[in-house]
């Protein structure tokens, strides 16, 4: 029988497991205000495009079923229904993308991502919390009043997440 030596190419790799193995992580670099602004602009364009596609698909399906109709029911919506539709689109855009991938289209373009306080992927609850916190009036301006080293808006601080640059 062959004796296993340390230079055996068929030997399984081994690494020491230490209690503080995660402690030597690289420090996370918070995204700058300019990157955050670019995220916001790209994400707003993406949400407007998503809204357009949903409304057009609904309109096409509606007119296919009602060829004599002059207008779709969407045109008779009130202000409350329009706001509810906008909130629904925002929740359906941000929450799954940030929970599953840690980034939206805007974050993908700017090279940033959402992480929890330990540097890992945010939970579904944190992603949903981020989305609902975006509904706070003037919340987008909270990034402007944050200190330069820690650019963190209310939608970051409340669910305990960060937007950081990818490495």
Secondary structure topology:
Blueprint: H1 33-65, H2 79-100, H3 105-110, E1 112-116, H4 124-133, H5 154-157, E2 161-165
Antiparallel strand pairs: 1-2
Helix pairs in contact: 2-4
Would you kindly provide a written description of the structure presented here, covering whatever features stand out?
It is built from 5 helices and 2 strands, in the order αααβααβ. By secondary structure, it is mainly alpha-helical. It has one domain. Strands 1-2 form a two-stranded antiparallel ribbon. The longest helix is centred in the first third of the chain and has 33 residues, at 33-65. The model has no long low-confidence stretch (mean pLDDT 85).
Short description:
With 167 residues, the protein is mainly alpha-helical. The chain has helices spanning 33-65, 79-100, 105-110, 124-133, 154-157, and strands spanning 112-116, 161-165.
Question: What order do the SSEs take from the amino end to the carboxyl end, as H and E?
Answer: HHHEHHE
| Category from helices, strands and their pairing | mainly alpha
Number of domains: 1
The number of helical elements comes to 5
Biggest sheet character: 2 strands, antiparallel
Which residues form runs of ≥5 with pLDDT under 50?
none
Count the beta strands.
Answer: 2
- Approximate strand percentage: 5-15%
Residues in helices, as a percent range = 40-55%
> What spatial form do the alpha-carbon principal axes imply?
extended
Rounded Rg: 23 Å
């Amino acid at each position: 029988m062959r004796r296993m030596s340390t230079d055996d190419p068929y030997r399984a790799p081994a690494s020491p497991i230490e209690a503080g193995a995660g402690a030597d992580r690289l420090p996370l670099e918070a995204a700058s205000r300019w990157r955050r602004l670019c995220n916001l602009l790209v994400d707003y364009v993406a949400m407007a495009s998503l809204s357009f596609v949903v409304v057009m698909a609904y309109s096409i399906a509606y007119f296919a079923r009602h060829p004599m109709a002059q207008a779709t029911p969407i045109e008779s919506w009130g202000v409350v229904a329009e706001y509810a539709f906008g909130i629904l689109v925002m929740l359906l855009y941000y929450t799954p993308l940030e929970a599953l991938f840690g980034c939206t289209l805007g974050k993908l373009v700017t090279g940033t991502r959402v992480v929890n306080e330990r540097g890992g992927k945010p939970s579904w609850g944190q992603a949903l919390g981020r989305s609902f916190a975006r509904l706070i009036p003037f919340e987008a301006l909270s990034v402007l009043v944050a200190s330069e080293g820690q650019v963190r808006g209310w939608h970051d601080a409340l669910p305990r997440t960060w937007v950081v640059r990818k490495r």
